[in-house]
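Course assignment 3, question 2. Fill in each field.
Student: A.L.
Task: Predict the tertiary structure for the chain below.
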Amino acid sequence: MNAETVPDWEKLKGVVAEALGRPETERAAWLDRACNGDDALRRQAAELLGHAPAAAGFLEPPPAPDASLADGTRLGPYRVLRPLGSGGMGDVYLGERADGAFEQRVAIKVIRGLLAGELRDRFLAERQILAQLDHPHVARLLDGGTTADGRPYLVMEHVEGEPIDDFCDRRALAVDARLRLFLKVCEAVQHAHRHLVVHRDLKPSNVLVTADGDPKLLDFGVAKDLGRGKTPRTRLLLPATPEYASPEQLTGGPVTTASDVYALGVVLYELLTGENPFGDAADPMAGRSRAAPPPPPSARVRRLSGDLDHVVLRSLAPDPRERYASVEQLARDLDRYLRGLPLEGRGGVLYRAGKQARRHWKGLAAALAVLALAAFWTRESLERRQLEHETRRVTVLSEDLGQYLIDLFIEADAARTGERSEALERMLDRGRALLDAGAFVDEPLLRASLLGAVGQVERRLGRVKDAEELLRESLELRRRHLRPDHELIGVGCNNLALALRELGRYPEALDLLRETRSILVRSRPPEHPEIATLLNNLAGLEKELGRFDEAIAHYREALEMKRRLEDEYGPAEIANAVKNLGVGLLDAGRLDEAEEALRDALARASRLDAPDPLLRAGVEHYLGRLLRERGDAAGARALLESALATRRELRGDVHRQTLETLLELAFVDEIEGRLDDAEERLRRVVEARRETLGDEHPETEEARVALERVLAGRTTATIR
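Answer field:
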């Protein structure tokens, strides 16, 4: 092959890439059609394909003789320490400054010996490109030179980091955090474009992120300098990575800044969904056909619908003219998304009005206070008046959502006090259907209200895993669109913490409750119902962590505050606070004090004008447990069977509260020697907890250990 007969490399590359994806028996006929009478193109493509089996890879350079640098080799003022890796053009080494001027670790890239003649021009072009670029998110060129055997090298900033997709996944970054990191990459690419440089090989492995979250763009080895004509090309090195390449790169069209926009779209798609838009990113031929856009990100991660679908699919438009005109324009739309503004040129009146409404968060905050009230489940007259007042504000923005929240909380409140019906499940089904259909996706604070409302009720009904997903998404939306100390952030933290506590994820729950407290103490007077509720929630978590003294202190503080705020609390709330104190004392082993508090709570629950059967069942459960621990099996059984009947009727067979009472009854069976009954109950608890809480949850383990103990006891009895 000689320079005079080489067809356009970009076109040749696309033809060969397509041919490699076809069975060998079909390649010749396909080349005839693809080359369409271009004999030179047909001949060169066939020659490259003839090398493919021996290359054992995707048009990789032939193996070079061992020209590696030994550790300790001096290159100007630098010393080679060890190899870091290899690329298409050369090898990369970790080096250090060795002339004593100062200490510095560097990356040294050296061209391979055998290919030096073919790749020298491209390598020198990379060095010239890097010399033009000076940006905090581009790995800097520090120096360059020639080895003793005549091979060029360049010295670059050494980046200690990991690929951007691995960085995001290992830290489980939220969507908004991934977008902010991606925007820094866009800044680096736009900087290159302003210097008339197209990267042409943007992919996660070419963006390393340091431990501090600082991305660095690497590897301009296949970049194109638009200001200097065509970049020198080689006949065996395929520029760009196919699964990130644009259609024009794969089919031989002109490569412009739009090609980098496309590659950024692929990277963004992977950061948001964890998948390559065109298939398996590990397959070098995946997605070689780009005639049609890929499925939207929301097809793989439902909650990404709306603006993010629009941004990604516009970046991945097959026709370069339909993509963002620049990386800067792409970044501007992502920034507008993060700030809750309408995307440029998108949507009609309703879309833009919704965005405008969201920007005025002060008015929305008042409208969404309905969820704050529901979150703490206070049910007396003051809260009801506020509920009615603030729900009307929600209805101004969305009549459907306002009415839905009213209906949902009426039904949930009825279920809590014993009037269980199918209406609540129908309401939840409607809420889930709205979410699945992308309701309020362009009004994220209203969507956060819907997510939070459904999530809270799901948690109350014992479906904690589902609740966690909904509550986490609700909180994420609020963090994105409200100031960090907004009271609705505190509400979201509190609600998610309660779900995480039930899932046994105590440290994360504690962090969220501490954040809630830091927000509430700035926005509420010291004596406030929400402060009292927070103290109660903190105490419950501290109890789970074995911090009994702190828990009891907080339970007492919450109880005393509620007594002082008696006008804002009814007798049911006071009885519940007394019960919580009794539970804390019981878990701490202070049985006498615990029994006094629990009997007081039972008496208060019995005197309520409006009976609260679930409150009474909760007191009966813990008092039954206390009697069981004292050895009074008969007294314990009577209380526990009463509690189980109520919880089963109002909560269902697999609710967390029903299962904990079933477990206590199994313990009583065990004490009384009724091992068959104990085994039967324990098997039901283990199976249900595995299903609802997971195999690793502490409560699942508790039931499993109890079952093993009963089975061992039966074996011992049989042997005797």
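Instructor remarks: The mean pLDDT is 77. Residues 663 and 682 are 6 Å apart (CA to CA).
Grade: pending
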